[in-house]
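Input record (Table S2, row 221):
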Amino acid sequence: MIGKFIVFEGVEGGGKTTQIELLRDWLLGKEELRQILSKYINVVITREPGGTQLGKALRKLLLSSDVLAEKIQNTSELLLYAADRAQHVEALIKPCLERGAIVLCDRFIDSTIAYQGYGHGLDLELIQQLNYIATGGLKSDLTFWLDLDVEIGLSRAKNRGNFDRMERANIEFHRRVQQGYQELAKNNSLIVRIDANLTREKVQQQIQEIIMQKLVEWRYN
Ligand SMILES: Nc1ncnc2c1ncn2[C@@H]1O[C@H](COP(=O)(O)OP(=O)(O)O)[C@@H](O)[C@H]1O
Ligand SMILES: [Mg+2]
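Output record (magnesium ion complex):
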């Protein structure tokens, strides 16, 4: 596919949303990048859950604490995330990549491994299979893991205001999620760790440096 699929991962409050927007602005605003970016038609920002209409409805069910009075069971949650992803890949991500877009995506398959696998203790092999079914084998071209202390992330998320169902889970849960990301990064060379404890500007600078290298590498493929 002509396009490139770039994913942002990490615990709550790590700065994914902030950094994706800064990156889009940089990609579109930098004169020096014009030529190297000319093979791509545009930059698309999307997220999981919630990148499609179906996804938005699922996101509400999954993350708003006031929609359902009953607890979503861990396995149901896993399947809802998978449904969101299947729709997202087929209806949005693949068509964008086929048209030649750079897709910046807030969370993807590694979130399910980290949250539902390491966080909730669901079977990792089952999750891998479900991820495969949901994506049809589509993988990111590059994944940034915004790594920061769990407490710092949660306090940033709290200050942001809308503190959702996942963010309210206990600190031990978030520590297990963090450990999940550590394991994933150890075993996958396409995951690039970014020190996200730093200022917005310093975090963005690390991301831009990696993107510059990648754009050169991708120039002819
Ligand atoms: N490097 C940073 N230092 C301090 N605060 C930050 C930084 N990056 C983001 N924030 C703030 O922390 C909160 C969480 O950031 P956000 O981008 O929403 O994280 P995420 O999407 O990973 O949950 C927001 O209020 C944001 O403005
Ligand atoms: Mg966010």
